[in-house]
From TrEMBL:
It comes from Chelydra serpentina. InterPro entries: CFAP53/TCHP. The keyword Amino-acid biosynthesis does not apply. Residues 76-139 form a coiled coil. It comes from the Eukaryota. GO terms for cellular component: cilium. PANTHER family: CILIA- AND FLAGELLA-ASSOCIATED PROTEIN 53, TRICHOPLEIN KERATIN FILAMENT-BINDING PROTEIN FAMILY MEMBER. Keywords: Cell projection, Cilium, Coiled coil, Flagellum. This is Cilia and flagella associated protein 53. It is found in: Cell projection, Cilium.
Amino acid sequence: LKTCFLLQRAKFPKPDKFECFVLECRRKEKERLEYLAFTKVHNRGLQVSHWENHNERRRLHGIVQKKVDQTMQEYLAGTEDRRERLRALLEAEEKSYFTEMESMEETMLEREAKMRERAKLLREKREEERQKLVALKREQQF
């Protein structure tokens, strides 16, 4: 009998089912809390990343907008310079045109002198014709 007793193995006591259930629940709750903590950290990282990307896009948009505004100002300034040069050129052309027209136009004194000269020429011509007519009549009398 003594030998039989030694041959039997010692068995562990069967685990209590309630304790196993509680341990399993605690393990699952621990996993769930770990997963929740991970998702919180992950979501926070996504938010930070989104915020940084948004700020970077806004910053780049601001830089591009400033460059566009500066280029437009330079273009408009160039356009205004061209307008000023063209305006000055137009004024110079108008002045030269008016000067030319005034030089071609007769003044009142020149016009009066011209009219006197013409009247004198007409009188001389009439007098010549009259003299010719008188000469012709005299010749006819002879």
